[in-house]
């Protein structure tokens, strides 16, 4: 007998899920210890990981009444790409740990919902295949390699495949210490390839003190000397806009703007520097510094429509989902990611209406009780 995936039972459970937490529970139940540790973990004690969520829930709203919200629009655009609602998929490595369709499933779901997917350098699927599945709704995330020619090759491939922006991750000169991965010696199962990040042989041959294969791999390939001076070189490689992912301060936001880059506020889902500021707490000073000169995005802890509105009220143009997309993928492949996006889209619409707004353009700091 061939098993269809997702099964009827999984599809039913997905349809019955009423929020992202319930999909998280479905996704977690389908993962082995290795994958679950990898997806779930934050760095060290997980303070920043938790703070991302907690700081969203602490902000209170000031809804307006009697505003005729019979017609509410959730549409926006990012770098000129129209989005049906202001939510995209953040880059995460190894979607093959969650589902055999891996990044193709995520890309199809994002495209189907009028969202945008950011593909990780460390995907299990080649850029070109994901680009086709994403139907033009693709950004490419870059880790800068010690071997600059490998990175240059990836940038050219991403541009040729139709990616619309480069997302340079700037918060990972070294991998944060995710202790569960160390303890259980995280390993990429042998059937999974990392086609944009060098061969499996390169992966296996790299040795450090760490128990986690991920850390060995990363530290062998990725360049911790990355600095502001490298941005001109990166810009010279393609005509694509560059977004710096991992900005947490006004100082770095100002430098990003001076270098002609857009700003993605992120602490890597609390997986890098533990006790770093939560993203929603970092956003106001960054929005003030950028002052409308470039676009600002945010990720970290987004799980409710009201989180999305709070980020927009404080200056983000769109927000991105890391783990929630992975839980959806594990829970039911493309259908699971689609359900995550659908639920959140419905929540954004309802939260807008209950706040007395007809469109995202009306969302400003006056929505928040600070
Ligand atoms: C399992 C996992 C893998 C990730 N891989 C990458 C990656 O390859 N590149 C990157 O820039 N960020 C990566 N991130 C960080 C996400 O892009 C994002 O910043 C973070 O997950 C957002 O927080 P959230 O999970 O609370 O939504 C990863 C996050 C997770 C959970
Ligand atoms: C080792 C870094 C690649 C994936 C990543 O960014 C993460 O696990 O957070």
UniProtKB/TrEMBL annotation:
Q: Which CDD domains match?
A: alpha_hydroxyacid_oxid_FMN (cd02809)
* Name under which the protein is recorded: Glycolate oxidase
What family classification does the UniProt entry report for this protein? Belongs to the FMN-dependent alpha-hydroxy acid dehydrogenase family.
Alphabetic keyword roster = Flavoprotein, FMN, Oxidoreductase
Every copy of the FMN hydroxy acid dehydrogenase domain together lies at 12-370
- What's the cofactor? FMN
- Residues that coordinate or bind FMN: 91-93, 120, 141, 169, 245, 266, 322-323
Q: Where is the active site?
A: 268 (proton acceptor)
InterPro entries found in the cross-reference section: Aldolase_TIM (IPR013785), Alpha-hydoxy_acid_DH_FMN (IPR012133), FMN-dep_DH (IPR000262), FMN_HAD (IPR037396), FMN_hydac_DH_AS (IPR008259)
Q: Do you know which PROSITE patterns this protein is assigned to? A: FMN_HYDROXY_ACID_DH_1, FMN_HYDROXY_ACID_DH_2
**Any one of the GO CC terms:** cytoplasm
Q: Which GO terms describe its molecular function?
A: FMN binding; oxidoreductase activity
Sites where the protein binds glyoxylate: 38, 143, 178, 268, 271
């Amino acid at each position: 007998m061939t098993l269809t995936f997702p099964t009827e039972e999984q599809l039913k459970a997905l349809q019955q899920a009423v929020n992202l937490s319930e999909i998280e529970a479905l996704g977690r139940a389908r993962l082995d210890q290795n994958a679950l540790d990898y997806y779930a973990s934050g760095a060290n004690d997980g303070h920043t990981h938790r703070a991302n969520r907690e700081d969203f829930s602490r902000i209170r709203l000031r809804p307006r009444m009697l505003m005729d919200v019979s017609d509410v629009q959730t549409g926006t655009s990012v770098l000129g790409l129209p989005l049906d609602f202001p939510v995209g998929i953040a880059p995460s490595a190894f979607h093959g740990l969650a589902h055999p369709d891996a990044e193709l499933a995520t890309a199809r779901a994002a495209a189907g919902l009028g969202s945008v997917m950011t593909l990780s350098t460390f995907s299990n699927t080649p850029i070109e295949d994901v680009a086709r599945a994403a139907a033009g709704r693709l950004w490419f995330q870059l880790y800068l390699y010690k071997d600059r020619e490998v990175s240059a090759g990836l940038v050219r491939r991403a541009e040729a495949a139709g990616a619309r922006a480069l997302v340079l991750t700037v918060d990972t000169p070294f991998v944060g210490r995710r202790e569960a991965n160390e303890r259980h010696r995280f390993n990429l199962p042998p059937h999974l390839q990392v086609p944009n990040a060098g061969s499996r042989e390169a992966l296996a041959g790299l040795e450090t003190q760490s128990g986690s294969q991920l850390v060995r791999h990363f530290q062998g390939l990725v360049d911790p000397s990355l600095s502001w001076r490298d941005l001109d070189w990166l810009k010279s490689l393609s005509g694509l806009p560059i977004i710096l992912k991992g900005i947490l301060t006004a100082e770095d936001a100002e430098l990003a703007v001076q270098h002609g880059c857009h700003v993605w506020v992120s602490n890597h889902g609390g997986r890098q520097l533990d006790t770093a500021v939560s993203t929603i707490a970092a956003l106001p000073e960054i929005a003030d510094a950028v002052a409308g000169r470039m676009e600002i995005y945010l990720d970290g802890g987004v799980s409710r429509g009201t989180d999305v509105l709070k980020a927009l009220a404080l200056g983000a143009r769109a927000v991105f989902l890391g783990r929630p997309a992975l839980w959806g993928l594990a829970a039911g492949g493309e259908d699971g990611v689609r359900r995550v996006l659908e639920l959140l889209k419905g929540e954004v619409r309802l939260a807008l209406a209950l706040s007395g707004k007809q469109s995202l353009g009306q969302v400003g700091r006056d929505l928040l009780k600070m």
